[in-house]
Amino acid sequence: MVPGNDTQNSGFLLQGLSVEPELQPFIFGIFLSMYLITLFGNLLIILAVISDSRLHTPMYFFISNLSFVDICFTTTTILKMLINIQIQSKVISYGGCIAQMYFYMQFAALDDFLLTVMAYDRFLAICHPLHYTAIMNPRLCGLLVLLCWIISALFSLLESLLVLQLSFCTDLEIPHFFCEIKQVVLLACCDTFLNDVFMYFTSVLLGGGPLAGILYSYSKILFSIHRISSPQGKYKAFSTCVSHLSVVFLYYCSSLGVYLSSTGTHSSHSSATASVMYTVVTPMLNPFIYSLRNKDIKSALKRFFQMAVIKRKIVLDLKNHP
To answer: Where is the G-protein coupled receptors family 1 profile domain (predicted)?
Structure first.
């Protein structure tokens, strides 16, 4: 089957979070603010890690990669909605919808894989501290991140190719603020059995597999922490995991909320509302979780701003006294 002519010519219509015209300026303002906070918050984390040599460690390397993926993830889902509200249009082209769906799935899977790799990093740091530096060398860190990109890209590519085989005829309205794959598949006017099976398979594999890895890592971590005799040692070991555990909890709780809202109710708009937590709120909170509880990142950000102020003064002095 090939896409229907109507779809190729006119694309899809994104209904967004509300059909009420008077609510659109409010939605635009709220989501623009959240997007800017997400963008600048995660950029600051990346700049802090790059600019401070003391943060050139595996843990902060993975944190900076997670921040980059969160920026891409939020941009993929939110930017088109903001543009559509601004130009008062609900249209997204067929190609644009497929591209948005592809990158959404890729960055969502990347988030999941990076959180798993970070759990493995904490497992090695706490359970095998003497071998940690030798095992988690820059080469292995780079390979792990590259592997995350390759696997997520392959799965999202396969999902997108399966959607490309579907035919869309008349009903082109997506009750969502972005091209979520399940909502797009529901609009097809042909058999979607293969798509449904593959979506279920990837949900179990990409969701359950990494979660099992995270739970296994933390079971070993908790066992190792329990064997530490010093209360200060226990606190120090566990404190290195608190930020990561908070992000994992937020990620999986929001993902579960999206899943339950899409299967437990018949309202597609309730699923779209639940997706806000997963696609916007979680990436926005991640920089705060890592910076507010992390003295190293707070110190690096402080030094970064101090250097920026000093450089600005030097530039102004040179302009005033050539």
So the answer is: 41-290
